[in-house]
Amino acid sequence: MRWTRIYSVKMxxxxxxxxxxxxxxxxxxxxxxxxxxxxxxxxxxxxxxGPCSGVRRQTIGFNWLALTNIVIKIAPSQRxxxxxxxxxxxxxxxxxxxxxxxxxxxxxxxxxxxxxxxRFKLKIAKQSKRxxxxxxxxxxxxxxxxx
Amino acid sequence: xxDNEKTAHSPRNRRLAGGxxxxxxxxxxxxxxxxxxxxxxVQKTQVKEKRFKTKPIGxxxxxxxxxxxxxxxxxxxxxxxxxxxxxxxxxxxxxxxRASIRAGTVLILLAGAHRxxxxxxxxxxxxxxxxxxxxxxxxxxxxxxVDQSYVIATKTQISLNEIKIPERLTDKTFKRExxxxxxxxxxxxxxxxxxxxxxxxxRLEDQKIVDRQVLDAVKEVPQLKSYLSSIxxxxxxxxxxxxxx
Lengths: 147, 245
Description:
The complex is a heterodimer of chains A (147) and B (245).
Chain A: E1 21-25, E2 34-40, E3 45-50, E4 55-61, E5 65-71, H1 80-90, H2 92-98, H3 100-112, H4 116-146
Antiparallel strand pairs in A: 1-2, 1-5, 2-3, 3-4
Chain B: H1 25-32, E1 52-56, E2 65-69, E3 105-109, E4 118-124, E5 130-133, H2 136-139, E6 144-146, E7 151-157, H3 171-174, H4 185-188, H5 201-219, H6 224-229
Antiparallel strand pairs in B: 1-2, 3-4, 3-7, 4-5, 5-6
């Protein structure tokens, strides 16, 4: 007798450490780069490789990895060449860049790169946006109260 | 030993290890035959020249003349010896210009009357100070000298390759004139009056010449004009060490 699930159970964790899970490396020399989990070494470490993102094949602890929702189909301990093909085929790069996570990171780095002049321009842009919105709201309120 | 042209003898003495000479002083005396060459000491009769002059004096009973020294003695002798200061021959080099500061860079002034203002850097003067201009019309900062240490260099730059700064703008033109203190009684009680010295017509002319060129370059960059008119201040959550200028 086969158990069939009538309803899907929502687990606490949705992203698992598995072969093919794309993760972002959050510490160390490869910080900020994407790598795919090729194999699990033990309770705390995984073999990670990122031939297209400039990450050398190496063991990285789970502490240094942040799992993304991207999974690619590779075999355990697959070699870098094969990984590269799968990575490019699944277009991990655009999947990643379209994610809100990547967009948030890009915004953060943009803010940090702002010069004094950029901050001034931002201030002016915010001010003008505010005035446009306020005047529109005022207009609408007036129309509503007139009705 | 009677030649007028004395040729040098080959060295009689030599240095041994340890800084010791081969022949002692007395041995050298013998070698050089200095007993034969005794110099006659010429006694210089030192005539103490007292520099006096005779001066005619008025008044009947004063004697018609008086002998008076050329150099008067001091009026005041200090009770303690004042140490004599040595001459300082070394002069400090003019400050090296930071790599981030180039002609046309927007600088933020951190001190002085124009603190917080964003100004345009023109060039470094020979004294090491930076010549900047507001431009005057935008933020009221005139052609001015500013110390590099009291300035933040932003990454914003305008192209000032072809700018011509009048040659008469040197350190001297900006140097403040020291008022000569006169010891006359009348002047001591006169009110000095805090008068701001008015700019000379040459300075006004130079300001116009420079600002015209700078403003032309400023106009090419959108929003730069209003940026230079605004004043910089640190906002909450902004830490100078962690933000880019």
